[in-house]
Amino acid sequence: MYLGDLARVMLRAGTLTFGGGNPTTAALQREMVEERHWLSGTEFALAYTLSRITPGTNLFACCSALGYLLRGWSGALTCLLIASVPSSLITALLTLGMDRILAWPAAVAMMHGAIAVAVGLSFGSLWTLAAPYLQQGAIVRGVALIALGFGLGYVVSPIWVLAACAAAGYFWSQA
Amino acid sequence: MTEFLLLYLVFLKATLSSFSGMTALPILREELVATHRLTDRQLNTAIVVGRLTPGPKGGYIVSVGQTIGGWRGATAAWLAMVTPALLVLPLLYWLGRHAKTPAVKRSLDAVMLGSAGLSLTAVLPLARDAIDGPMPVFLIAAATLLFILSKVETVWLILAGGVLMLGVKMLN
């Protein structure tokens, strides 16, 4: 796998995937694990999990970790830059015209529709990310862990939620 | 240069103290809105911009940077957003060696599943905000199914959602 191939995958996922970090991560999982077989599910899960416990923007940590697993430091830096620069540029450019856009009712209606779709993309991506881990003959455990993450998410900081899930996974045997 | 550095430090403080998209918000409000460098309306507009653009939801801080300090502000915000990302590499280096141990693998799988539940707590309030009639409900359901069942680029789904909502408003 060449650095150029990695850059192309990252560019497509980083600039054409809307709806936040989860849809982008799900798109990367689909591309890198299921279609191109660059990484195993466990390696992808490692990158994703560690990015969740890294302070800051999880998506960029995840992209750096994926790049590092595939191509070392050059992969990490390439993925970080390609995942962050184009999307940030689009954000900065849209900000410049936002006041004019918000004064135009048709554009506000379109934004309303786009935000609803972005919510749907988030739901779909959560399913896409979780599904491979639910299909390993342990549905009850999987649903219990999702419920644990959901329930604790309302009461404690995300890092403690993830620590609790990691501990539950560690001690809850396959049998 | 000093202004750039100060903005970078404010944004870095906000991103370093957060573990998911919107959790930097209270710090930005305290550092920028309370000091009258940004209004609440500008902050809300930045959040909308962040939702409409590709990349993470936390990308709205680039919009905040652009609003406050133009391109320099946007660059400071981008830099603050990417700096902590590299902290994942030492973790990967040290913990990656044990990833294939069965118990560690079970922990990783558990965190993937727990993360899905955790992320639901962030998505549900967005869904509540977005739903004000039957059309957004249809769009959310259609986008969910299409993301799972097809390989359509999400940019087209976003555009289709916008056009459909515009059509409904025009018909009304």
Topology summary:
The complex is a heterodimer of chains A (175) and B (172).
Chain A: H1 3-16, H2 21-35, H3 41-52, H4 58-102, H5 105-134, H6 139-153, H7 158-171
Helix pairs in contact in A: 1-2, 1-4, 2-4, 2-5, 3-4, 6-7
Chain B: H1 2-16, H2 25-33, H3 40-52, H4 60-82, H5 88-95, H6 102-130, H7 134-149, H8 154-171
Helix pairs in contact in B: 1-2, 1-4, 3-4, 7-8
Q: Mind explaining what this structure looks like?
A:
The complex is a heterodimer of chains A (175) and B (172). Chain A is an all-alpha fold and 175 residues long. Chain A has helices spanning 3-16, 21-35, 41-52, 58-102, 105-134, 139-153, 158-171. In chain A, helix 1 packs across helix 4 and helix 3 crosses helix 4 (58-102). Chain B is an all-alpha fold. Chain B is 76% helix and 0% strand. Chain B has helices at residues 2-16, 25-33, 40-52, 60-82, 88-95, 102-130, 134-149, 154-171. In chain B, helix 1 packs across helix 4. The longest helix of chain B is centred in the C-terminal third of the chain and has 29 residues, at 102-130. Chain B is flat. Chains A and B meet through helix 1, helix 2, helix 3, helix 4 and helix 5 of A and helix 3, helix 4, helix 5, helix 6 and helix 7 of B.
Main sheet of chain A, how many strands, which sense, barrel?
Answer: none
Largest sheet of chain B: none
Considering DSSP H and I runs of 4 or more, what fraction of the residues of chain B is helical? Answer: over 70%
**Contiguous runs where pLDDT drops below 50 for at least 5 residues of chain B:** none
Q: Supply Rg of chain B.
A: 19 Å
- Cα end-to-end separation of chain A: 38 Å
Rough outline of chain B? flat
Biggest chain pair interface: A-B, 110 and 102 residues
Given the structure, what is the number of helices of chain B?
8
Helix content of chain A: over 70%
Oligomer class: heterodimer
Distance between the first and last residues' Cα of chain B? 52 Å
| SSE topology string of chain B | HHHHHHHH
Strand proportion of chain B, as a percent range, falls in: under 5%
Number of strands of chain A: 0
> How confident overall, as mean pLDDT of chain B?
88
Rg from alpha-carbon coordinates of chain A:
18 Å
